[in-house]
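Whiteboard transcription, Tuesday session. T.W. wrote the structure tokens on the left side:
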């Protein structure tokens, strides 16, 4: 009985020492320093992609914080060769989006594909607190993808023409009308600001792993990377 007590006492003491050591080590160990706005893209499952994003207060539109956010969004969109990005995709639940369909994006498609999909150049566009109205209720269905659902695509039906209002990064009020592919980009990004991911509105039977053929060709040795240099 005595021996048992001794064992208990020594076990308890050992545990205290171990927890003290853990606490002490914790004082010195560097914390994982990765806070939003990220320089990578959040992936579906991240709660930030399911929130209804908050409007930027009017007196904060030209603040250094929003300026930093917009610049980070543009950098990340370009780094990942995207054509649109919403702030929740870098971890910030604010109503900010950036879009742009440049010559480099155009070159990823054949001329006939560009024509069929109504792809036209869209200069870099920043919209803070955007509002969208449907201008043409004709519905167009094409495959689209999302950098927050990396490695997949699916057909999504979108309206043919929309108009957008909002503020640019200098606080100037903007209004633009977009049709075809650019209208699709805008609808996709507006959905992000409302916590909607394209997989919510896709035709589920068309959901496709974009590298499924490569998976077969390379005996399954294919990796989807979430990092882009
Ligand atoms: Zn997306």
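and on the right, the sequence the group agreed on:
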């Amino acid at each position: 009985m005595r021996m048992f007590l001794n064992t208990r006492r020594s076990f308890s003491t050992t545990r205290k020492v171990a927890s003290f050591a853990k606490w002490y080590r914790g004082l010195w160990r560097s914390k994982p320093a990765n806070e939003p706005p990220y320089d990578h893209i959040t992936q579906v499952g991240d709660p930030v992609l399911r929130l209804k994003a908050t409007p930027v207060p009017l007196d904060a539109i030209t603040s250094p914080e929003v300026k930093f956010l917009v610049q980070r969004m543009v950098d990340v969109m370009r780094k990942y060769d995207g054509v649109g990005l919403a702030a929740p995709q870098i971890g910030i639940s604010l109503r900010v989006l950036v879009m742009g369909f440049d010559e480099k994006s155009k070159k990823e498609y054949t001329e006939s594909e560009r024509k069929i999909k109504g792809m036209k150049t869209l200069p870099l566009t920043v919209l803070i607190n955007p509002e969208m109205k449907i201008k043409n209720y004709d519905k167009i269905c094409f495959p689209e993808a999302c950098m927050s659902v990396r490695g997949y695509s699916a057909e999504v039906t979108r309206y043919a023409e929309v108009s957008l209002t909002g503020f640019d990064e200098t606080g100037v009020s903007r209004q633009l009308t977009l049709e075809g592919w650019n209208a699709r980009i805008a609808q996709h990004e507006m959905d992000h600001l409302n916590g909607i991911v394209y997989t919510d509105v896709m035709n589920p039977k068309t959901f496709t792993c974009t590298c499924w053929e490569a998976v077969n060709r390379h005996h399954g040795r294919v990796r989807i990377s979430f990092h882009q240099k």
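Someone added at the bottom: The radius of gyration is 24 Å.
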